[in-house]
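Sharing a chain and its predicted structure for anyone who wants a worked example. Both blocks are below, sequence first, tokens second.
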Amino acid sequence: MIAFALLQGAGMTALFVQLLPIAAIVLIFYFLVIAPASKQRKQTQEMLAALKKGDRVVTSGGIYGTIQGVETDVVHLKIAENVKVRVARSAIASVLKPDSSGD
């Protein structure tokens, strides 16, 4: 009976030792990949929600423009004199600082 308990305890220890590296890999993967991606996604959603008329932006296609109007899913950009385009809100890659040049 005592020998069986010792073997069972050794089996649990062996199982723990086998699962420990897998758990470590999952934790490392979470902190190196999942958490930063989640943080970036949250920052992008906040940036898109804060878009307003007059902001200078760059689209994911590399087009620089000034926001002339904002709808639910569409942003109206002025990219040149007398040239306005409708762009999906999700296509806005970044908002430029006021001193950035473009257009």
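Comments welcome. Helices lie at 2-49.
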